[in-house]
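Entry 14. Ran structure prediction on the chain below.
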Amino acid sequence: MRLYKYVSPERGLDVLSNLLIRFTQPTAQNDPFEFRPLVAGFLRPDAATKFVAEEFEKQLPAEIAKYQAVLGPNDKAMLPIIAGLKPALVALAIDQIDAIFPTLKELLFQKLDKALGILSLTEAPSDLLMWAHYAASHSGFVVEFDGMHPWFWGKLADTDEFRHLRKVTYIEQPLSLYLSDWDGQDVFYSKLKNWAYEQEWRVIRPLQEAAKRVGDDVYLFDVPPESIRGVVSGIKTSPAAWARLCAILKANPKLRHVSTFQARLAAGTNAVEIHPAT
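Output, structure tokens:
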């Protein structure tokens, strides 16, 4: 399985020279909804009501017993009335949860943004739009990776949502308005169909596992040289950038297996073709 990373000239040369690659936080992605499910609440209304009511059932007897110890004889007559207020208290609690949900959701997103980074790859090395958007208007490179290399399959347990390749699914609209109906695939590995042309695969890793931090918000991870299989120069890649890249590959014995290619416009079309470098 071959997967590809579009990069600017500078990033491509840096990746190959230092064997470090950035895992990017959700807020730095092009999709403004990254890791931000379009949801209206944590739980469906019926499930929320049931959950809160069950919590009241657990807590209310203890609270009544606590007040019985300090209330006078006349005051104790109020205890059944308090217990009878449970439906109203449940409704009030639900209203409070709904009111603070937007704030809680934003706090959760901020936590995820500070904790996780994404390496986005693609099945498509010759997409005209991605060359333009992610490879500095065709002047950069596409780095080819071996998607079966163990570096891409490092999950710590069967339940680990991270550290291994996952294919992004593309959806017409959110699967549910409630976060409890979503799973890891929905939150971390799904996007709206507008992005389907990217044919994305991704690896998500905790930023604390980065090998290097640059400034406040750039986290770089070690890349095994064996996982890199090829490099494609863009239609507008400068001769100087291409010469520098070839020199990097030649100078590092661990990269001498890397094949080189050139992107070209197909004759009479706007399609990009990939040819072995000459």
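Residues 45-111 form one domain. Will compare against last week's run tomorrow.
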